[in-house]
């Protein structure tokens, strides 16, 4: 059983005048991280740094603001390097495969572990229930239940449904990211 602890909600993070922010995309392997990354890169004119098998790093321009995006592999071995990126992350997306009920309980424990890291206490979190186009996709209420999200208190978070295959929900994701990045510019 995983528990989410209360965390304070202070959002001003970047120093005044800083024009860089960082977007970290996490989730289990096969959840859709790289597909989401590809869509965001199209929308935000992403430029890729030399990718390697474990981490793909992109530079996006969001409202004239330079944002680094990291898409890090989510298999068990590579999850060990996730914490190396927490301190640098200013916005966090955690993506789920909404048709994989068995792995949602794994995702719950993985997300719980991620959120125990104090470096992410103030980081706005967007949880994506992906693969809504598939017939076995679970409804939002079931995903919230299986993920124990009703216990996720004291932080700036939200959940949205999407299909990165069809592009459904991408506009809402873009709006959320833009809003969070804009707040960090001030
Ligand atoms: N049906 C469907 N398949 C998806 C969706 N998003 C990703 N996929 C597929 O799921 C698989 C894993 O996606 P990928 O982005 O590589 O996952 P990652 O391991 O988290 O980076 C690929 O075959 C994708 O084409 C979606 O919204 N719907
Ligand atoms: Mg990937």
UniProtKB/TrEMBL annotation:
<keyword id="KW-0449">Lipoprotein</keyword>
<keyword id="KW-0547">Nucleotide-binding</keyword>
<dbReference type="InterPro" id="IPR005225">
    <property type="entry name" value="Small_GTP-bd"/>
</dbReference>
<protein>
    <recommendedName>
        <fullName>ADP-ribosylation factor-like protein 3</fullName>
    </recommendedName>
</protein>
<dbReference type="InterPro" id="IPR044612">
    <property type="entry name" value="ARL2/3"/>
</dbReference>
<comment type="similarity">
    <text>Belongs to the small GTPase superfamily. Arf family.</text>
</comment>
<dbReference type="Pfam" id="PF00025">
    <property type="entry name" value="Arf"/>
</dbReference>
<dbReference type="InterPro" id="IPR006689">
    <property type="entry name" value="Small_GTPase_ARF/SAR"/>
</dbReference>
<keyword id="KW-0519">Myristate</keyword>
<keyword id="KW-0342">GTP-binding</keyword>
<dbReference type="InterPro" id="IPR027417">
    <property type="entry name" value="P-loop_NTPase"/>
</dbReference>
